[in-house]
Every structure is written in C-alpha cells, then in structure tokens.
Write a structure and sequence with these properties.
Layout (H helix, E strand, L loop, with lengths): L4 E6 L3 H14 L4 E6 L8 H13 L3 E3 L9 H8 L9 H18 L3 E3 L7 H10 L7 H4 L4 H10 L6 H4 L16 H10 L1 H14 L4 E3 L2 E3 L30
Parallel strand pairs: 1-2, 1-4, 2-3
Antiparallel strand pairs: 5-6
Length: 249
C-alpha cells in the first residue's frame, strides 16, 4: 500500500494506542497516517498526559478535534438534549464521537480507518464494517493482539496507563460514564471520583434519568446504597469511542 491517507482513531485507551503504533510501523513510511483524538471535558485529565506519552512513543503528533457546538462537553450535550442515557444509547457518544468523526471524515476523506479492535473483538469489528465503515484496517486483529497484549505492550514501553485504569475502572471513559448501569461501577465512582458522582446524581435526578440498575430495577444514583454491588468490574466494558454502541461477542 502506498500514497494512501489512513486515520487512526485514538481514544486514550491502550488498544487504540497500540493500534496507532502498529499502523505507523506497518504503513507510516509510504502513507499519510493521521492520529486523531476527540477529547471529552469529563474525561480524567490524566488521559491527555497518556496521549502526550503516546505521541512520544509513536513519534507522531496526535490531533485533537472538538465538536463545533459542544466543544467536547458531555454535560452540555445532556443538558441540551434533556437526555443522558437509556434505550436510545447516550447522546454524548453520538454527537461528540460519531457525528464528529463524520465531520472530520467529510473534510479530510481518508482512504482507510484504524480503530482499537483487538483479536478478541472479531465480531465487533465485523459488525462495525457492515454497519459503519467498510474501509477499516484491522491492524490488531491481523497481528493477533488481544486487549491484554495491549496493556503489556504499553507497560513494556515504560508508559503509565491512564489513571482511570489504575483506579480500577474498566476503561478510560469519562469520570462517571452514563452508559454504565452497574452498581459496582457507580459505587467505585462514588469512592474514586466523588465530585463526578455528585454531578451525575444531581443532573440525572433533575433530568429524570435513572442511570443505575439495582435489583432488576432502574433507580436514581442518589438512591443507590453505598454497599450495593453487581458483577465484577473486570467483566464490564462500555468503552467510549466511535464504535462503543456495538455489542460485544
């Protein structure tokens, strides 16, 4: 492959970081490889420290882009749409990730896209190709790299993972991701990110959004017992990105 424009969608997660590294190694000499990140205001600030470290590791700049109206602010999206999350998904993902990806793609017209689909996410990759973008290069899948491998490669490079991972979160999403319904997750947020928990509880109560599922019923965050628990964090994944709405296999 030569003289093609390839965009790697970097989400501040380990998999997309390794995908960027592998894409540059494999295609960077003969093609225009762009690394693009869509920062969200509510993400932990350590995400951008991680992005800076990845820039050094891959030897390429990471472009930060923002929605022209909402400027990466999920709280503003929820307030404007009077909706945070539910059966119709999360508007923050659609507007700040998916719609913004379309805006950038329409302007720059890349030949190929690369995302952090790992070797253990073959079904998600296939669904994404069918429903979203056909011209995806499955860099990690082609090399048999799993999500666990990605963590190992980042560690071997001497790079510290984002604080969200180190604090036990299942991903590097926003502090208090509204796509989550697990009492285990939300009580971890209550402990590790008390301000985010308070903000989500206040806004969701005001907008009438029951974010957490407890004993088979949706309840408000401020109704969640502090000792409530569901399935372990390690079994969860509601990763935020332009493909987070796709089901896992």
């Amino acid at each position: 492959m030569r003289d093609k424009k390839i965009v790697v969608w970097f989400s501040c997660g380990a998999a997309s970081a390794v995908a960027a590294k592998k894409t540059i190694e494999k295609y960077g000499a003969d093609n225009d490889v762009r690394i693009v990140n869509m920062p969200i205001v509510q993400e932990n600030s350590d995400n951008q420290r991680f992005a800076d470290d990845i820039e050094t590791w891959i030897g390429r700049p990471i472009e930060r882009i923002f929605h022209p109206k909402y400027k990466g602010d999920a709280v503003a999206v929820w307030e404007d749409r009077k909706y945070m999350s539910g059966v119709n998904g999360a508007p923050c993902t659609k507007i700040l990730k998916k719609d913004l990806r379309h805006i950038w793609t329409d302007e720059h017209r890349p030949d190929f896209h690369v995302l952090g689909f790992t070797a253990d996410e073959g079904k998600r990759h296939r669904l994404f190709v069918i429903s979203e973008i056909p011209n995806v290069i499955p860099v990690l899948i082609d090399e048999g790299i799993t999500k666990g491998d990605c963590f190992g490669l980042i560690k071997d490079a001497g790079i510290i993972l984002p604080l969200s991972y180190r604090d036990g979160m299942p991903n590097a999403n926003c502090d208090g991701c509204v796509k989550a319904t697990s009492p285990t997750y939300w009580n971890l947020v209550r402990v590790k990110r008390p301000n985010a928990f308070k903000e989500r509880a206040e806004q969701s109560r005001r907008l009438g959004v029951r974010l957490v599922r407890y004993k088979g019923k949706r309840i408000f965050l401020d109704e969640l017992p502090p000792d409530a628990a569901g399935r372990p964090i390690k079994d969860m994944n509601f990763e935020c990105g332009i493909f987070c709405e796709l089901p896992r296999k």
